[in-house]
Amino acid sequence: MSNFTVLPLPQPLGAEVRGLDLGNIDDSTAAALQQALSQYLVLLFRNQTISDAQLVASSARFGILDEPAPNPFGEPFHKVHPEINVISNIVQDGKPAGNLGAGEAVWHADMTYQETPPRAAILYALQVPEAGGNTYFADMYRAYDALPADLKAEIEGKTAIHDSSHNSAGMRRKGYAEITDVRETPGAHHPLVRIDPATGRKALFLGRRPRSYVPGLSVAESDRLLDRLWAHIDNPEFYMCHEWQVGDALMWSNLEVLHRRDSFDADAQRRMHRTQIRRFHSDQDVSAAA
Ligand code: OGA
Ligand code: MN
Question: Which parts of the chain have pLDDT scores under 50?
Fold first, then answer.
């Protein structure tokens, strides 16, 4: 196993991992990183040089990979490694090289419209703009703990719909109709409170605000409750901000943090490669034993 150091960031969550080549890790290193991830929720690796094949191989040390979400353009961005999602505003030969464009990506967790959303993701920066395009991560354990008692009581036992029809940049995915009534939003229903199976700790689990709906409530009541929750989480006491450099890789724990991205100059070029880990190998061992 490699020797590396984990230094907490001077922010409400996150840690920097130093002394590690993320493109070359063995199983025991992955297990130690997973442990650090469960503690800090976001891990930053700087000055990395990771080939696409290495990104896939290292990600697969942690668990089973997910295919990227359906994108607005209807075909995988990465032809050689379809497990890799390309997040980019670059247009090549008239075709988008990646997803999400140059606009803001609103607070969200990835692919939570699935019954089993990815546990974690790794995002690796190949090209970044000089300014803008910062990414923020908000700790949903802290957000839950800080909820007023009445809101905690109000959300207990309730679920929300996590919209599958649009991406976090507000673009409709190919094959989906526009939603006119949030009660008909397509996507998984998840409890608003997620309980970590290992620790029993509670986190808010919100997914994304647009087109969300709390079944059992009127649309007006649901909007009122969701607006209160989303106003609560957008608080610098709960989030960190990452300003990207080329060669940075971020790994995040997708079910306990939300992330969002600032817009940037559409003429600048930003290109990131991302993998998503559906299940950790250790989670599978647990379910296999049960
Ligand atoms: C993602 C995402 C934000 C960014 O890859 O899931 O939301 O900073 N990316 O590109
Ligand atoms: Mn995302």
Answer: 287-290
